[in-house]
Write a structure and sequence with these properties.
With about 500 residues, the chain is mainly α. The protein has 3 domains: about 140 residues, no CATH class; about 160 residues, no CATH class; about 160 residues, no CATH class. The chain is built from 24 helices and no strands. The termini are far apart.
């Protein structure tokens, strides 16, 4: 059977290639060529929705349906849906001798084979490797089934009697969040907007979708509080959304003996949450669970008692880390670590913690802010050491120091950089070599020459306390930190 477009003689083989290109590259908008292909296929189906070729056009529209969830031209999705609805009405009650039809087991992973299958259906001499015979694929009821699959793609949850699948938008979200939470966001991802959008999705979620959306917020919260997000409003949005939905989960009980452990990996937790945020995803979860014999029943996973615990833990974490990252940071505890019993600097520990090693990242933020604050109250050798400790700690901060730290460190560094300077250095030797191994030994010897042996190449005390050296250190630190946050946020320093 050779199907040809009346107007320009395009063959079915050429059509199937176009349809498959649209299936693969659906995430585009304002594409007039795609619109024309959809409208042509829809017109052919609408002109004879109960005809012998209906299965071809129904499968074609099903292949292109993901594009119709994106941003097609005005009225394109509506015309395609109307054609699919007409085919379903005309074909679904037709009598047939078949006990089953292929659409009943067709899932989204098999969509990529539809282009080849359409051609094989039209050519009796073509190889046929399908489990179901051609007659079942061509059956009017199967065509009606694919019409409903197409409708379900365009309008998720709008039809019944088709295999469940994730909405196209959900699959895109899983892909985007997986890349983001693995630490390699897609180039076009606006991280703040992407994370804040999950708060909006939770706030506006239907009751059945709410548990899944909370799981997604739980997943992105770990990323948001890690220091990778530098905008306080993002954490505010997440916290407000959790506060808003928490009452929906509290005050009830359950009959479960226990609750399952949710994924502790951000990408896995987000994928589960997105899957459970739609009726198709929840049905898909249950089908996979029953087929594999793994995972907990859906009612236990989305249990309100478990969700109340998730919401409470997520909210507690968001509030604490929001204060740590953006609020007034308490560094009084650092006195016990970095001062000796007599109140003098614990130079050995300070030198150790300023070494550029990954295990010092955990100390960097509190150490840098503590040193910057103490610098303002110190003089002499202590003052020189604390300036250098604050600078080196900021070098160790990962992924970058939070606003609460940057405010305090910049306040000190800007004051140092603005101080009057002598025209020339008052020492003959070079300034200490920041970032080199001998720097740490030299710093310890400078502060406590009687306790710490000198480095092979030790600098004079005057080079360590040189105002021009201090200004250079401060200016470098300002250059490193000054662009991390907006000036209006930095201006709100306590």
């Amino acid at each position: 059977m050779k199907i040809v477009m009346d107007m320009d003689g395009v063959t079915l083989e050429e059509l199937s290639e176009i349809w498959d290109e649209i299936r693969e590259n659906y995430d585009t908008s304002d594409n007039s060529a795609y619109d024309r292909a959809v409208l042509d296929c829809a017109a052919r189906l609408a002109s004879d929705p109960g005809g012998e070729s209906a299965h071809v056009w129904a499968i074609g529209l099903t292949m292109m349906a993901p594009y119709l969830t994106w941003l097609p031209g005005a009225g394109v999705a509506e015309q395609a849906a109307a054609a699919l609805e007409a085919a379903d009405r005309a074909l679904r009650d037709r009598g047939c001798p078949h006990d089953s039809h292929p659409y009943l087991s067709h899932d989204d992973e098999e969509d990529e084979y539809l282009a080849e299958l359409v051609l094989a259906l039209a050519d009796e001499t073509a190889d046929w490797n399908e489990d179901s015979p051609r007659s079942e694929w061509r059956c009017p009821r199967n065509a009606a089934g694919f019409a409903r699959i197409g409708l379900d793609i365009i309008h998720p949850g709008s039809v019944t009697d088709v295999p469940p699948r994730l909405p196209v938008e959900a699959k895109d979200s899983i892909s985007t969040l997986s890349a983001l939470l693995h630490g390699y966001p897609k180039p076009w991802t606006d991280i703040d907007d992407e994370i804040s959008s999950q708060a909006s999705e939770l706030s506006g979620a239907a009751p059945a979708d709410r548990a899944g959306r909370l799981m997604v917020v739980r997943a992105v919260t770990w990323y948001a509080v890690s220091g990778m997000v530098r905008t306080k409003s993002v954490l505010d949005d997440l916290a407000e959304a959790v506060e808003e939905v928490l009452p929906h989960f509290t005050g009830g009980g359950c009959a479960h003996d226990g609750h399952p452990s949710l994924p502790d990996s951000g990408p896995d937790a987000a994928e589960l949450g997105i899957t459970l945020s739609s009726s198709g995803g929840r049905e898909l979860y249950e089908r996979r669970r029953l087929a594999s014999g793994r995972n907990a029943p859906l009612d236990a996973v989305v249990c309100p008692v478990l969700m109340a615990e998730v919401a409470d833990r997520t909210l507690t974490l968001l509030r604490k880390r929001r204060d740590d990252l953006f609020g007034e940071r308490d560094t009084s505890h650092a006195d016990a670590e970095y001062l000796r019993a007599d109140g003098r600097l614990n130079i050995e520990l300070l030198v150790e913690r300023t070494d550029n090693k990954s295990w010092n990242e955990q100390y960097a933020d509190d150490l840098g802010l503590w040193a910057a604050r103490r610098h303002r109250q110190s003089d002499g050798r202590d003052r020189a050491v604390l300036l250098l400790v604050a600078h080196q700690a900021m070098k160790n901060s990962y992924p970058s120091p939070p606003l609460s730290v940057v405010r305090g460190v910049l306040a000190t560094m800007r004051a140092v950089a603005a101080a009057p300077l002598p025209a020339e250095c008052l020492h003959e030797d070079e300034h200490p070599p920041l970032g080199r191994a001998e720097f740490r030994a030299g710093l310890a010897h400078f502060w406590a020459p009687e306790e710490c042996p000198p480095a092979e190449e030790s600098r004079s005390a005057a080079s360590w306390t040189c105002p021009r050296f201090a200004a250079a250190v401060a200016e470098q630190c300002i250059a490193d930190l000054g662009d991390l946050y907006e000036e209006d946020a930095l201006a709100d320093a306590s």
